[in-house]
Amino acid sequence: MEYSILAAGITMGLSAIGAGIGVGVLGSKFIEGIARQPELAPFLQGRFFLMMGLTDAVPMIGVGLGMYMLFAI
Amino acid sequence: MASELTTESYISHHLTNLTCGKTSEGWTCDPYKVDQMGFWAFHVDSLFWSIGLGALFVFVFRKAISKNSDASVAPSGMQNFVEMSIEFVEDNVQSLFGSVKNTLIAPLALTVFVWILLMNLMDLVPVDFLPVLAGHVAYAIAGDAVEWIKGPESLYFKVVPTTDPNITLGMAFGIFILTIYYSITVKGLKAFVAELTLHPFGKYMIPINFVLEMVNFIAKPISLGLRLFGNLYAGEMIFILIALMLFFSSIPIGVLGFGLHLVWALFHILIVALQAFIFMALTIAYLAMAHETEEH
Questions:
Q1: Is B230 in contact with A71 (Cβ distance < 8 A)?
Q2: Within a domain: residue B153?
Q3: Which residues in A lie closer than 8 A to residue B274 (C-beta atoms)?
Q4: Mutate which of B274, B275, B283, B286 to disrupt the A interface (most A C-beta within 10 Å)?
């Protein structure tokens, strides 16, 4: 049981680091794109949310599996 | 089970499906006989809510569209909402799918989007409301007749179908089968096999190509299903953890939990809609890939 707590912590923490970097890069490029071509903002916003959801999903899977390790096993 | 309420029993109570299945003594829904059920075990609550919400979607959309066919009268209420969602899906299909003619894609995308959105929205119903209601109803109706219902708490009930990996992976594999079907019918079997074996290293490295492409191919439905499951499972879990604050702490922390519920619910609306949209967008993208015939 105590090892599954450690495993869940590592899973959630590492996946949060990865997604943090990913969303950071994505957001900076998004702002950069809008600064260069403000008329593309609505188009980019849809794509931005799509990609953010894709990136965001990886740590969420990690959190889901971590919670599963903690409570369901 | 009138056992003592602990953190772990509360959480596992919320994350266990109502499972009915066939054991050696016949059909039963007893939660303590789940491991004897084997293959014929049904998650009755997931099936009930997903099929019920699918029927609700068909009923509402059909009613809204057949009600007002007069173009000179401005649409109102539900019809506005239905037209908005249809236009939204149509825009996405147009931009992602391009000029390929396939009349199945847009209705499929609409179904996937609205159905998953409805199933995800069940997450915003307070975590204890429907399970406790279902437990009391089952106890009142069948408490005397069925031996394993010993009280309102003995019935497990999970309300959000998309927190059940069977439902999300089932939908993802449905999409997967459609991509294989369209790959074979549109490109032809030969081109489909060539796509799986001749990239990326050319025809002298067929085994390596096949393994690489196969991993890529199988990862698509699994990541599609697990993404939806993971997001909703984590969201539901956080709702449950906040609800625990109300039970097992002092009153000030309970009040804080009430506020946290509100904040998380508001943030969760974003996740709910975003995940439904992503599932739809990826469905369209995978099916569009199955229709691409040109060489890479």
A1: no
A2: yes
A3: 49, 52-53, 56
A4: B274
B183-227 tens-digit pLDDT:
999 888 888 888 888 877 777 888 888 888 888 888 889 888 888
Q: Do B230 and A62 touch (CB under 8 A)?
A: yes
Note whether residue B158 is domain-resident: yes
Q: Which of A49, A64, A67 sits opposite B274 (nearest CB)?
A: A49
Chain A hits for B275, CB-CB cut-off 8 Å, are 53, 57
- Say how many domains are in chain B: 1
- Cis before B131? omega within 30: no
Q: Which residues of B are catalytic?
A: 223, 227, 231
* Domain residue limits at B11: 7-69+76-291
What is the longest distance spanned by two Cα atoms in chain B? 71
Point out the residue among B15, B231, B281 whose CB comes nearest to the CB of A60.
Answer: B231
B150 domain-assigned: yes
Q: How far apart are the first and last CA of chain B?
A: 61
What does residue B20 show for φ and ψ, rounded to 5 degrees?
Answer: -110, 140
CA distance B41 to B49: 17
DSSP class of residue A40 equals: G
* Residue B181 main-chain phi, psi, to 5 deg: -60, -50
Residue B1 belongs to a domain: no
Determine how many CB atoms are found less than 10 A away from the CB of residue B85: 15
Give Cα A62 to chain centroid, integer Å: 10
pLDDT tens figures, B93-107 = 888 777 667 788 889
This model of the complex carries an ipTM of 0.70
The fold of A2-72 is: F1FO ATP Synthase (1.20.20)
Rounded mean pLDDT of B261-276? 89
Residue-wise pLDDT for B158-171, tens only, equals 888 998 888 999 99
Q: Band the pLDDT of B175: cuts 50, 70, 90.
A: very high
Match 């995800």 to its residue by tokens. Answer: B120
